[in-house]
Amino acid sequence: IRCWSNIPFITMPLSRVHGKSFAHRSELKHAKRIVVKLGSAVVTRGDECGLALGRLASIVEQVSMLQNQGREMMIVTSGAVAFGKQRLRHEILLSQSVRQALHSGQSQLKDMAIPVLEARACAAAGQSGLMALYEAMFTQYSICAAQILVTNLDFHDEQKRRNLNGTLHELLRMNIVPIINTNDAVVPPPEPNSDLQGVNVISVKDNDSLAARLAVEMKTDLLIVLSDVEGLFDSPPGSDDAKLIDIFYPGDQQSVTFGTKSRVGMGGMEAKVKAALWALQGGTSVVIANGTHPKISGHVITDIVDGKKVGTFFSEVKPAGPTVEQQGEMARTGGRTLAALQPEQRAEIIYRLADLLTDQREEILLANKKDLEEAENKGRLALPLLKRLTLSTSKLNSLAIGLRQIAASSQDSVGRVIRRTRIAKDLELEQVTVPIGVLLVIFESRPDCLPQVSALAIASGNGLLLKGGKEAAYSNQILHHLTQEALSIHGVKDAVQLVNTREEVEDLCRLDKLIDLIIPRGSSQLVKDIQKAAKGIPVMGHSEGICHVYVDMDASVEKVTRIIRDSKCEYPAACNALETLLIHRDLLRTPLFDQIIDMLRIEQVKIHAGPKFASYLTFSPSEVKSLRTEYSDLECCIEVVDSVQEAVEHIHKYGSSHTDVIITENEKTAEFFLQHVDSACVFWNASTRFSDGYRFGLGAEVGISTSRIHARGPVGIEGLLTTKWLLRGDSHVVSDFSEHGSMKYLHESLPLPQRNTS
């Protein structure tokens, strides 16, 4: 028998068949029976007298939502003492004699001393009101609630325990939410404490232990403990080095320092951890989270059940590798060491990785074959994604060539002086390039992205976290292994990390203290989801690749079909493939137009007609559903425009600012198009497919950015750098430059050091 908070815990309850808790957060969505424990700090107001009604209403709404989904919800609540204290204080004030009130004056009446209120009396006065409040709130969601009061003694008597168990099961069977609390009106008086001003509070850790006991007794899948802190920290919350523990494992208690107790109640985090570990041992998963924070309290319970990274999750299954937080720290440290290397050393790492891609070709293709076989057997990937997933000898050779380009062009990327200014005599300022920090690159179905991005991160001295799609797991694993092998030649293996844990993308996007820039490589939906989920972390990328080719009335017959075929058919799944073909109205029913249509039919491109194009035809192809469609396949939209100005307007209205092309022999028209189209890449008489870091001579790219801040278009090494300022002086102080000071500002531009272009 274990005794915590005066409640004897029998290691395994009589009716309990040993269950197994969930190993990962992602499994919490399968929880059927859930206990939500509300601490006093969650239920009570900041003045510790009365209830936090808005917060309580939000909790009831979330519990009701889960109950109406078919789950079985139970609440273990505090709050009776605080509610009773509010009522009794009000009664005491009203009971003062009229004469005393008149003689005292209104101001003195407000300051009238309130006698110390005994906690059991407060509980007796507050319990009925608390329950009535719960009933009224749950009624709004057509849910019935039932009150159950227990004491420590109820757990000593086996018959009472069986009765309690039976009552709870019957209530759950009838879709009723049991609301359980300790019967504080009849418990023995506790030791005096000052947690609630003027009240001896019943120890809240009774409710922590009660919640754990009920969770195991009722074979509950999940226990959610809400308090006034975000979860469990490795040192007292508020201290400089305190870090939230995402997952807590049995045996980790030695690495944790417990701080002071919560604003109200006596349990403290230590009692919560003990109760949580006991529940975990009994087969119930546990999450401790903040139920008071205004930004998250409105969805904290549902977020936990959805498997989101909220609070501290208790798990018995310890992963073999590091957590993503630890990987982030490793990438940060490794990146700083990488940035401190000589440029030749960083280049040597990239050259080594390029050699490994060709030397280990057979192993890479074998791993890729496993991914392709699994994807085809499960039938979960569309044809365009399968094409992106496929590696080949030619792809690996191209990758190796691109990596060598990166290595050759990276000699003076980090630490390059881009501005020098003499501020004053012996006071010189430099602006130099430095890495951004830690990059998170999330990519789908494209394992070739891993060595490309790794090489760019290495060249720019950035730490890197990689999150690849599970459909490319085998390919990513061997490519990451080769990357770390290359990094090892200069002892910076940890700079590039592959996230293999079950982290959801949304959870990764919340690691704002570990990640400096997120770069998504995948579908437009992935990019949109990441942009929405990122909290305080910049996102570089494009959500869609709706690329246009405008065929002007002065276009060359020889050039048109070549450029359109290459733009649409060379690799239709690429983000820089043609999606909308704009035709000048004067070209309709001409031999050139017929050649375009014939070529598209031969290439088996499905044509969708824009509204204006459809109006010119008696029998038209299927009319396009939206002019903002990225097909990523052998499909495209054809629309008619009256002029280059209308083409530009169409692109601005329906395009995605990615890549747009004009085909014309009229230089004036071409220059108008080049200057007025507001896209990252604008071409004249060239395929949209040239919008690529490798083809631009950047070696590779981390992606194509359509944003207007920092980097735009194919992003290579330069886009992964920022700057810092270095000021070198000799006892200079600002006061010397005042009106009557001895020094004057010069602000002279100085020549830059000669760049290494070897």
From TrEMBL:
A single GO BP: L-proline biosynthetic process
Location within or outside the cell: Mitochondrion matrix
Pathway involvement of the protein, from the record: Amino-acid biosynthesis; L-proline biosynthesis; L-glutamate 5-semialdehyde from L-glutamate: step 1/2; Amino-acid biosynthesis; L-proline biosynthesis; L-glutamate 5-semialdehyde from L-glutamate: step 2/2
Predominant place of localization: mitochondrion
Aldehyde dehydrogenase domain sequence ranges: 324-588
Annotated keywords: Amino-acid biosynthesis, ATP-binding, Kinase, Mitochondrion, Multifunctional enzyme, NADP, Nucleotide-binding, Oxidoreductase, Proline biosynthesis, Transferase
Family: In the C-terminal section; belongs to the gamma-glutamyl phosphate reductase family. In the N-terminal section; belongs to the glutamate 5-kinase family.
Binding partners and assembly: Can form homodimers/multimers.
Protein name as it appears in the record: Delta-1-pyrroline-5-carboxylate synthase
Gene: Aldh18a1
